[in-house]
Amino acid sequence: MKEKDSEEQISENSSGANDNRLEAVRDLLFGPNDQAYRQEFKEIKDQVAKNKSDFEEKSDALKEDIIDRLEKLENKITENVNSAQADLSKQIEGLNAGKVDRKQLAQMLQTLAKELES
Predict the structure, then answer these.
(1) Is pLDDT above 80 for 14?
(2) Would you report the helix, strand and coil content of the chain in percent, each value rounded to 5?
(3) Contact by Cβ (8 Å): 26, 34
(4) Dihedrals φ, ψ of 101, to 5°?
(5) Is the pTM value of this prediction over 0.85?
(6) What is the C-alpha separation between 2 and 8, in angstroms, rounded?
(7) Are the C-beta atoms of 15 and 22 separated by less than 8 Å?
């Protein structure tokens, strides 16, 4: 039991010593501006997070706008295709109505020829 307590104390002392050493190295590397650097990094990180959020909002809005416009375009194209098909059908019916059947024409000519002979 005493061994465990002494081991924990040694472990705490060594981790405290490691923390002190880490702080000393940090002070050597960054000097007294460590807190200023940390604050700047925090501000940059916050700004990046805000920009990401703004970008995602704008991206979602743009995505919805594009989808809406594509749906409208699809509807307009469908209307134009249907209109073109209706016009084409009318023109085909007009051509069929104006077209003379050859057999019928032959019979009409024979009838006319018989009438002229008589």
Answers:
(1) no
(2) 95, 0, 5
(3) yes
(4) -75, 130
(5) no
(6) 10
(7) no
